[in-house]
Amino acid sequence: MAKLEGKVALVTGASKGIGAAIAKALAAQGAAVVVGYASSRDAAEAVVTAIRAAGGQAVSAGGDVSRAAEAAALVEAAVNEFGHLDILVNNSGVYGFAPIEEITEEDFHQQFNINVLGLLLVTRAAVPLLGEGASIINIGSGVTTLTPPMTAIYSGTKGAVDAITGVLARELGPRGIRVNAINPGYTETEGTHSAGITGSEMEKSLVTLTPLGRGGKPEDIADIAAFLASDDARWLTGERLVASGGLR
């Protein structure tokens, strides 16, 4: 029997990259999945099609996680389609890099609104529907360990995710709800390609510093998420798993 059989999962930001891989991994373990997206409807539908082609259950749902009503609508989509909710993966995120002299208020609000406020709003909407044994998985970042230059805003958002994960683990633990974070290191995605990171000197430097000798793949993170969503991780909460191939 698949480890997530009978479970329902919502994955935000699941139209591509790490989110898409997580949605597929959860579905492969038997979960019915809501593939959340902000604007890439066609890409989200492609993920749904791939899951269904593999024998899984999935639907897509659009919404801006930084807006309360739209965040709540994503959660409602899971209940309306599949009847309940057991797993929430807060994966939606944006990033931007700039030296301190060049950061703007717009940069700050864009990243904090999606990466932090969005996580809080979706979680707030989901918690009343989650029962004992439910799992919340927040996707943070290895930048909170590395603290690289020119990432003051982005690293700040992911530091907030680390702290929120710990707070919610304590707050929701008495209700049997587990809350953990996965903090990926350098992971090759559509985003790293479009940002010019993949194939760059930056990538080469990161790989050189990685003990396992390569960059991460979305599937590397997805398998960890599937574990955290399952009862195999029943004694884990409040943890921050740095999934970086040893990069620190």
TrEMBL record:
The entry sums up its family as follows: Belongs to the short-chain dehydrogenases/reductases (SDR) family.
Identify the SMART domains for this entry: PKS_KR
- Keyword Oxidoreductase listed? The answer is yes
What is the name listed in the Swiss-Prot or TrEMBL entry for this protein? Oxidoreductase
Q: Which PANTHER family match?
A: OXIDOREDUCTASE, SHORT-CHAIN DEHYDROGENASE/REDUCTASE FAMILY (AFU_ORTHOLOGUE AFUA_5G02870), SHORT-CHAIN DEHYDROGENASE_REDUCTASE FAMILY PROTEIN
Ketoreductase domain residues: 7-185
**Which residues does UniProt call coiled coil?**
none
Q: InterPro entries, per this entry? A: KR_dom (IPR057326), NAD(P)-bd_dom_sf (IPR036291), Sc_DH/Rdtase_CS (IPR020904), SDR_fam (IPR002347)
Q: Which UniProt keywords apply?
A: Oxidoreductase
A GO molecular function assigned to this protein is:
oxidoreductase activity
Asked if Lipid metabolism is a keyword of the record, the answer is: no
